[in-house]
Automatic annotation (TrEMBL):
Function of the protein: Responsible for the formation of the pyrimidine heterocycle in the thiamine biosynthesis pathway. Catalyzes the formation of hydroxymethylpyrimidine phosphate (HMP-P) from histidine and pyridoxal phosphate (PLP). The protein uses PLP and the active site histidine to form HMP-P, generating an inactive enzyme. The enzyme can only undergo a single turnover, which suggests it is a suicide enzyme.
Signal peptide stretch: 1-24
Keywords: Iron, Metal-binding, Pyridoxal phosphate, Signal, Thiamine biosynthesis, Transferase
The protein's name in its UniProt record: Thiamine pyrimidine synthase
PANTHER family xref list: 4-AMINO-5-HYDROXYMETHYL-2-METHYLPYRIMIDINE PHOSPHATE SYNTHASE THI11-RELATED
Lineage: Bacteria, Pseudomonadati, Pseudomonadota, Alphaproteobacteria, Hyphomicrobiales
UniProt family annotation: Belongs to the NMT1/THI5 family.
Length: 341
């Protein structure tokens, strides 16, 4: 089974630290949390560290793994991290329930949510309606589990017809492979490749994407507390620029991104993660028509309004004003955000 790092390896942090030899005292410290253990798309920031993009933008960034989007939201809101990479849908729900601790998205990394139901052919589950009467496993903080109510509504599924089984994040795919649950919810880009690493043939894995079944919503973004953003606009601008530079470098040369993580984490599976990254691009999450035409980080206001409205209806919360959920104020000009052809 794929062994995922419990934290960004000390070697990767050492690699980052080695870039700060000149003018290090002038760099502004930033504590950054990922949404999950190291995966191919996280090479965006591994390259930003290795290639000194953060340093060139005045930042000394330390980066830790995450334990699910919901967990990252809580930790950033609590001040344990300055910036987080997490699902914007989890942010909308959290803000409604915790108005005094709300977060704001300032750079949209995923143009589409990879939230999905993942199962095996032997379960007999092939479409959303087939989930009735089955058990689904996921950590309680998992964003796809948090969003299941919206998925159920979009597909006329009675949520009460499904039984949820809670589990530690690292046991999710194992429990599906062992038949302890009928399906799991999660990012397809995570679960599919963890199952493959566990020995499950790709052709035996069934993915029911939320985005193809009534929930074409935005996915993960960079977020921070509004107070932090207001106090540190130069940090936010610099982080966005370094992220764009890291994304462009990764799209140009995916192998270099895998190698950058491997330098700090000897257990990192470069081939598996390159395949995972390619999958994210193929399904329109990290590379999309909207990004190709409008630049990385582009947000379609109508699509974001749909994302906000869907969350408000499902969770019976007042729809928040769009400017309390996200801002595009820190995006550089479009010409500086275009992905490689």
């Amino acid at each position: 089974m794929l062994r995922l790092a419990t934290k960004v390896a000390a070697g990767l942090i050492a690699l980052a630290a080695s870039t700060y030899s000149v003018g290090a005292q002038d760099l502004k410290p930033v504590h950054f949390s990922l949404d999950w253990a190291l995966q191919g798309n996280h090479a965006i920031w591994a390259l930003a560290l290795k290639n000194k993009y953060f340093e060139e933008n005045g930042l000394n960034v330390t980066m830790d793994r995450g334990y699910g989007s919901g967990d990252t939201v809580v930790k950033v809101a609590a001040g344990a991290y300055d910036i987080g990479f997490t699902d914007i849908n989890a942010v909308i729900k959290f803000n409604a329930e915790n108005p005094g601790q709300r977060l704001v998205g300032f750079y949209q990394v995923f143009d589409r949510t990879p939230n999905s139901i993942i199962t095996l052919k032997k379960s007999g589950i092939a479409k959303p309606a087939d989930l009735a009467g089955h058990t689904i496993g996921a950590p309680e903080a998992d964003s796809s589990r948090i969003m299941f109510g919206a998925f159920a509504k979009a597909n006329s599924i009675d949520p009460a017809s499904v039984k949820w089984v809670s589990m530690a994040p690292n046991l999710r795919e194992t429990m599906l492979a062992q038949g302890q649950v009928d399906a799991i919810s999660g990012f397809s880009s995570t679960s599919v490749f963890n199952l493959i690493a566990a020995g499950i043939p790709r052709e035996d894995i069934v993915v029911i994407p939320y985005s193809d079944n009534g929930l074409d919503l935005y996915g993960s973004a960079l977020v921070a507390k509004p107070e932090y953003i207001e106090k540190n606009p130069d940090i936010i601008k610099g982080f966005v620029k370094a992220t764009i530079e890291g994304t462009v470098a990764l799209l140009k040369d995916p192998a270099s991104g895998m190698a950058a993580i491997k330098e700090g984490d000897p257990l990192f599976d470069e081939k598996l993660e390159a395949d995972r990254l390619a999958y994210l691009m193929d399904i329109g999450v990290l590379k999309s028509k909207a990004f190709d035409e409008n630049g990385l980080g582009y947000i379609d206001p109508a699509k974001m309004e749909t994302t906000i409205k869907t969350n408000s209806e499902v969770y019976n919360i007042a729809a928040p004003a769009a400017d309390t959920v996200y801002t595009t104020a820190f995006l550089p000009p479009q010409a500086e955000r275009m992905p490689p052809k």
